[in-house]
User: Fold Spermidine/putrescine ABC transporter permease PotC from Roseofilum reptotaenium AO1-A.
Amino acid sequence: MTQSIQPPEETVIPDSLGSKSKFSFSWQIGFTAIMFGFMYLPIAVLAFYSFNQSAYSANWKGFTLDWYMKLFSDVRILSSLQNSLIVAFCAVGASAILGTLMAVGLAKYKFRGKSLYLGVSYLPLIIPDIAIAVATLVFLAVFAIPLNLWTIVAAHIVFCLAYIALVVSTRLADLDPHLEEAALDLGATPFNAFMQVLLPQLLPGIVSGCLLAFVLSMDDFLIASFTAGSGFNTLPMEIFSRIRTGVKPDINALSVILIVMSGLVAFLAEFWRYKSEK
Assistant:
């Protein structure tokens, strides 16, 4: 005697659950749109008015590229840009060497007070910039060191060092320690093992940390304004001095260029980080 096999009944989803999931999905999209609009709408408005032919941002009188062309003939802007690039390259270059050595030393060696030193090394990441600026200024005043472009470099090394060391230490934690040990067993000196085995593996993390520190150094205003001498304005300081009388389209154009360049550098840093993980 055969029994008839009935197909399983279809599961009926109540209308209330279906409407709830649709509402939840729509709410997530709306919240994401509001969040991104809150972050990037002011930047879009800034970019829009950088092409304004009027000298006043509130009145639109037509499209023009004159404000972008004017930047390349502005002596004060070019001078402050040169100062910012000198500070950023010098600070990042010194921090790359010191930060890499610090990260490797903290990861490989044990010594008394290591935990305390580790905590102190990363303090610039959490200390407010205004506190670092005031502390640096007091230190320079106590030792009667004149303020100039190199005092800005010294102050920027403080926080650039911490950022690069953090990125390199993160990369170092993902490496296989047996590769360096194998090189030592095969007769390589510790210096050769570091240069030929460890450093090439750390290079993506070093480059990523340097790009991040470069953007932070270029964008810094507080620390530079406290430690700069007379006549050594950086680009953020020059922008701040000009917007006191109102935001002009040339400043809008300069801000758009800085945003695009910072975004490009951040993209390169993220690309190097992604490549290092792979």
Observations:
- The mean pLDDT is 82.
- Residues 28-67 form one domain.
